[in-house]
Amino acid sequence: xxxxFHHTDRETGRSCTRCGRPACYECLHEAPVGAHCFxxxxxxxxxxxxxxxxxxxxxxxLATKVLVGLNTLVFVLTSVSPSWQVRLAxxxxxxxxxxxxxLVTAGFVHYGLLHxxxxxxxxxxxxxxxxxxxxxxxxxxxxxxxxxxxxxxAILLSPHVLTAGASGAVFGMVGATxxxxxxxxxxxxxxGVGGLLVINLVLTFLVPGISVGGHLGGLAGGATAGWLMLxxxxxxxxxxxxxxxxxxxxxxxxxxxxxxxxx
Length: 263
What we know:
mainly alpha, 12 helices, 263 residues, elongated, Rhomboid-like fold, 2 domains, 65% helix
């Protein structure tokens, strides 16, 4: 009896239907037709770059899922240790004292299940729209620019209020979506985005405890970034330009927040 081409001490009556070499049960893997040895399977695999492109194309809105996951993780950690909510949330005097990280971390802290559930629902819904239109890199850049613009607005209007939540970034996504629909000739009212935006703006001013500055700042930053980014399809050049645009908005937001906190 023949022996396996790889495990030469093993006798086998089977062979690879692709190369014809005898192979044992461990070296053979079932295929749609017959069984192939591991070397034939390896040789038939596409190049690594092509596999990455295929995975990237089939992964869906990956950046959106990662952002939802990060927000959820921070919510769980701060729920276990509530003192971290105070250490990560936005607080003007602390930012003025050098704790600039709060401008970013505040966007991942939430107070209660209803707070995070509402924000994550909108983040996922509008991420499903924006991420394919912008590409992952530009989408993340827009999200962070909106977050920082929201932090600027919150410190500008309510520096002595402990502020947290992804609402600024989410408002930026809604604003970018509305702008993108209008650029493409789609009615924001028929799509439902306009109505949702108006309802949330009304609640922003009527419901106590909501950061007016955070919502308006995020909306302004996201709408501006979206208006500039969504004019081009996601190409390499558009990605670079989009990152530059988002970096400029983020930089101005940070500078404005530091100025407002210093006052």
